[in-house]
């Protein structure tokens, strides 16, 4: 039996010109929570919908537990549960009716009450879907995916637009499913979500995977787990991105324990292994040049830094 | 071939095994609940046709023998004229008033009276009437006969007359089957076509096909929800006709035939609705399409008036429209008590429209 999800060299071209997915290969192991992280328009939704069998790829192959979508689509659908990026369920049905409707499509569904309880929707069981809050609607969307008793859960942007409490509730639901042996594939453009929830990540940009690994692996590859950000007055020019002020960045690169340098709108960001070595040297260097520090902070490196390092852009940019 | 179910990683124990028709039953029930909870559906499908039938039935009801209103110009002979009209055999249908010459003519011109009578000094009469107004022409003949007989004219011929306005020959008897047909078309087109596009736009169709739901179950449930509504629609409209307008049905056999016809009509228009909506992405575009499909049938298919008014060379085309076939069949069944077997041509027209629409719709259908 094959792994829950496997795909090789997926491509999707819309109308013969727009290349949404350009050669994606993935292998997701049983029990894993795998995240596709990338900015809007990176091709995450197209990729996940191809894996879900809702879109046909232009080329490439998908296997779910070793079976392709053309083998026996109904059987494959029994094994997976899906929450689409946006679905407006019937507003005039109540929560229980909605869950029971979806349960009726599967040959071996779970009891509606059990799912209601697991998703903290018991109190809302008799409320019309139209009257639910955003977080409750999203939990209901996941409930319709879980009630079929799936082995794989696909979640496309599950927490977009939700308040922090609702997001945490959803994360807990995903962890419970995973703890019971389920496999999860989700897309997100929130790095905190990817970092906390996913065992393994693929960073997607312009329809391609540009890095893959566990969150800590990816951060490790930056070289330093810490980021030192500072700004000096006067002559240090505001550089929009990258290397246009090569000399300047080289000077900072030479400081002890610094792994990489980038500058953004006049703020210099250093990826640093050991801040306690870098910072005294940094202060001395600024002093020596006759400048004054306007701002200095340190923080843990995040997936955002990984993405910026790889692409020169932020995840949330449009 | 059914692939082997992986034992690994099914996180929860199943509750039960769902039966083959579990999905269909739930889809049908969900659809009925949704319709029931939508006040607009209740109004447009159930109440509106009744209001329409009531309004038109009252407006075009067969009135008892019309009373003719006439005005006599004030003068020497006016009182004598009134007295003559009073003594005539037709006095119960004549309402006469006396007014000044100017006032009388004005009131006649604005249509308040059907005829102006002026008695001349030489004992003759002058009538002012409008040849373009049928009731004015009628009034002139009636008043002339009344005055002549009051003045002593004897009829040369003995005649008698009998009135006839039996149920079955009135406008309301023509109207109710037409409204029934139109209602089946409206609710089939909107109930299936509009509902589908709305679900497609909300991505609900896509969500459904992401489950193991059988696609045919979904379309079947949508269409059969129409049948449930149809029974209520037909019952209300026919019951209304029978109770309020004393319409007559030709026995139980006829009621059964009407139900069978209405089912066929509901399914046919469900199919046409499905075809109309098979690719549209937005409810705005499908609304336009539905109206475009229905408009020729509103005009030509004889809902409010008979299509005999159109030139005879257009009749074959008009009769090929599904609503014409349905209306003609409903009228023949309800009014004349015709059997279904005698109307196989009309049934065939309906079945072909429905069948071809379903097949094309399934071929072109877009779920996402």
Short key terms for the protein model shown above:
heterodimer, A: 318 residues, alpha/beta, Rossmann fold, Alpha-Beta Plaits, 2 domains, 6-stranded mixed sheet, 27% strand, B: 368 residues, mainly alpha, abc type-2 transporter like fold, 13 helices, 61% helix, 6% strand, elongated, disordered N terminus
Distance between the termini of chain B: 27 Å
Largest sheet of chain A: 6 strands, mixed
Strand/helix succession of chain A: EEEHEHEHHHEHEHEEHEHEEHEH
Number of structural units classed as domains of chain B: 2
Largest sheet of chain B: 4 strands, mixed
* Tally of helical segments of chain A: 11
Mean pLDDT of chain B: 86
Q: Find the count of extended strands of chain A (DSSP E, 2+ residues).
A: 13
Radius of gyration of chain B: 31 Å
Helices of chain B, by number, come to: 13
User: What's the CATH topology label of the largest domain in chain A?
Assistant: Rossmann fold
Encode the helix/strand succession of chain B as letters.
Answer: HHEHEHEEHHHHHHHHH
Measured distance between first and last alpha carbons of chain A? 41 Å
Oligomer: heterodimer
Shape annotation of chain B: elongated
- Summing up helix and strand content along with how strands pair, one would put the structural category of chain B as mainly alpha
Strand content of chain A: 25-35%
Output the radius of gyration of chain A: 23 Å
Describe the structure in your own words:
- The complex is a heterodimer of chains A (318) and B (368).
- With 318 residues, chain A is α/β, with parallel strands linked by helices.
- Chain A has two domains: 5-214, Rossmann fold (3-Layer(aba) Sandwich), CATH 3.40.50.300; 223-300, Alpha-Beta Plaits, CATH 3.30.70.100.
- Chain A is built from eleven helices and 13 strands.
- In chain A, helix 3 (95-103) packs across helix 4 (112-118) and helix 3 (95-103) runs parallel beside helix 5 (134-146).
- The two termini of chain A are 41 Å apart.
- Residues 237-244 of chain A have low confidence and may be disordered.
- Chain B has 13 helices and four strands.
- Chain B has helices spanning 22-36, 39-59, 78-87, 101-109, 134-150, 171-201, 204-209, 215-245, 251-276, 283-300, 315-319, 322-336, 344-364, and strands at residues 68-73, 94-99, 115-119, 125-128.
- Chain B has a four-stranded mixed beta sheet with strand order 2-1-3-4.
- The radius of gyration of chain B is 31 Å and the shape is elongated.
- The two termini of chain B are 27 Å apart.
- At the A-B interface, helix 2 and helix 3 of A face helix 1 and helix 7 of B.
